[in-house]
Amino acid sequence: MEIEDGDTSLEDLIKSRVKTIPDVPIPGILFRDITPLIGEFSVFQQIVSASVRAYRGTVVDYVAGIEARGFIFGTPLALQLNAGFIPIRRAGKLPRPTIATSYTQSYATSTIELHIDAVQAGQKVVVIDDVLSSGGTAAAAISLLEKLGAEVVGATFVIELTSLGGRARLNGYPVHTLARY
Amino acid sequence: MEIEDGDTSLEDLIKSRVKTIPDVPIPGILFRDITPLIGEFSVFQQIVSASVRAYRGTVVDYVAGIEARGFIFGTPLALQLNAGFIPIRRAGKLPRPTIATSYTQSYATSTIELHIDAVQAGQKVVVIDDVLSSGGTAAAAISLLEKLGAEVVGATFVIELTSLGGRARLNGYPVHTLARY
């Protein structure tokens, strides 16, 4: 159940609110700032509702949000799906034993971590972040969850930067996005 | 409307789930890990519901969450209060013009930032974070919001470390906490 052919009015609304900042975090990168989307209650609410609709009929035990903007969209999604929330964090932020993985983005190498007891084998997890770009972060998050035996039943992003190939990199997982650039 | 004399069964539930890790992030500090609270849907839901109840009858335009765990508890609170959400972030994370302030915690100096257009003068804001310890971070967040002319109508924390004096430091603001150590 892709949202691809879905709600163009929500996509237009999102695009009317997102602010695009050139050369952040480095020259040549266009940063898509989602803070106006969450500052306006009705827009934030519509984004969460559309994210929830994508998982109607799907069993979801946990929503795993990627630090930090994935926490913002992931916690309301978890609560509306009657699911728990798992934070996937930057290195050194989680206080108990973790598994970790490093990956290369277009402009940096990053490490993310997951508590080893965050999920049990066979549990069904949705991964969420604000933006799907090259897919490196999401693929790393999925690899951590799968190392613990979880089944990743979907990946949700508010914004998809289609030219960066993230959807292809997440081939085999249902990918849901709300606004595409 | 303090929750002080409130829901001892929720306080007991929270304390039964929080994991206490000694010497994190530095020797001598007891770290209170809230990840089990959010991993269990029914516990997370009860925490959000209790946070919402504290603002019944209060006008709230925005909930401002302090990076990163304040995002986790703050976004569901904002949505349930029909309010927008404002992220207060570590230095260098927000892409547009900000105001910033630095403050000293027991073990480090930190800087937090707020987009200068995040709130308008006279708007009513609730500040939220996972833990109230010395109150330095929350006081810094409040000072940023007030510099922009906002009115801080309350500060919510899931956990209060009472021996560290945070509540006294936030004297004059309604402080709501759900579990006290």
From TrEMBL, chains A, B:
Protein name: Adenine phosphoribosyltransferase
Chief location category: cytoplasm
Domain called Phosphoribosyltransferase: residue spans: 60-159
Subunit structure, as described in the record: Homodimer.
Molecular function per GO: adenine binding; adenine phosphoribosyltransferase activity; AMP binding
EC number: 2.4.2.7
GO BP terms: adenine salvage; AMP salvage; purine ribonucleoside salvage
Reactions performed catalytically: AMP + diphosphate = 5-phospho-alpha-D-ribose 1-diphosphate + adenine
GO (cellular component) term, any one: cytoplasm
Gene: apt
Class in the EC hierarchy, top level: transferase
Function: Catalyzes a salvage reaction resulting in the formation of AMP, that is energically less costly than de novo synthesis.
Keywords carried by this UniProt record: Cytoplasm, Glycosyltransferase, Purine salvage, Transferase
InterPro entries recorded: Ade_phspho_trans, PRTase-like, PRTase_dom, UPRTase/APRTase
Domain of life, per lineage: Bacteria
Annotated family: Belongs to the purine/pyrimidine phosphoribosyltransferase family.
Compartments, record wording: Cytoplasm
Pathway listed: Purine metabolism; AMP biosynthesis via salvage pathway; AMP from adenine: step 1/1
